[in-house]
């Protein structure tokens, strides 16, 4: 049992504790009590999120904004206050914990089992974006500064290459070259954000399908979770990160690269769901959707590569070279997107023309 759960007001006495291994950052546990109630308990990774108050405050601001606004209901999970009336529990040993009631009958998928699953995911993230349309993005604290600043991600990669802390650089010539040759294209959206040709919005920034809770039976989306990275950003990044993860034909850490490709049917259904649910996208945002997918995939690839060079400090791993394997799948996807570029653009046109 994780002792931290006793600091939250649960229905019944906690008696079961099972770790859920799905995110790469926090540690997550499913707690069951002797009355059969269930809770999610999370240890917050403060190496990644040093300011726990900032993430909890952002969450609070978004929840109260979404509670009563015009775009229809946007269900959200609600974190419990501790018995000491705090938004999280500080265990005195540097650990911060938070908890919420497990949503009955909910699951989160590691990949879509069908086009319908991915359509649901697209609608959930599209709706989330739309619902936050009038939210003053500048009110949000930047929980991770420069999170999707691709220019800065390249700077971090160069730092990691120069420091070469683990002596891994020598084996990575091809990967480094692959990333650096694509820098200009990868940074284009960031420049468009800076010069105002794409609007800065309040965005989710971590739109993997496993960040949507789905109903186990109906397979309908219940709500979007993991709001730690909700910050000012680009809608096309939310679109793109979801494609990177969910429209790939293989797992993010697949070692057999022949299995990794972009599934254009999944791409199409996601464009449809996202644009239907978010009618406030501008024509320029819509035109940039393929570049959003490209940018998020390449950026994630260089983040995995930089972390591998740094000795796997950021993304948790459960086997050696897992971060390198993750970088490889992202780069393989990039190659496939380059091959399928015209089709991606064509699909966006077909799905968004009236
Ligand atoms: C991390 O925690 P998780 O698995 O939802 C990361 C995302 C990456 C993702 C790659 C705060 O998300 O940015 O895209 O791994 N989150 C953070 O799978 O860095
Ligand atoms: Mg997550």
Description of the structure:
The protein is α+β, with helices and mostly antiparallel strands. The protein folds into two domains: 3-102, Phosphorylase Kinase, domain 1, CATH 3.30.200; 115-352, Aminoglycoside phosphotransferase (APH), C-terminal lobe (Aminoglycoside 3'-phosphotransferase, Chain: A, domain 2, Alpha-Beta Complex), CATH 3.90.1200. Helices cover 43% and strands 13% of the residues. It contains eleven helices and ten strands. It has a five-stranded antiparallel sheet with strand order 1-2-3-5-4, with no helix packed on it. It has a three-stranded antiparallel sheet with strand order 6-8-9, covered by helices on one side. The chain has a two-stranded antiparallel ribbon with strand order 7-10. β8 (212-215) and β9 (221-224) form a beta hairpin. The longest helix has 22 residues, at 289-310. The model has no long low-confidence stretch (mean pLDDT 96). The site of 2-acetamido-2-deoxy-1-O-phosphono-alpha-D-glucopyranose has 11 residues, from loops.
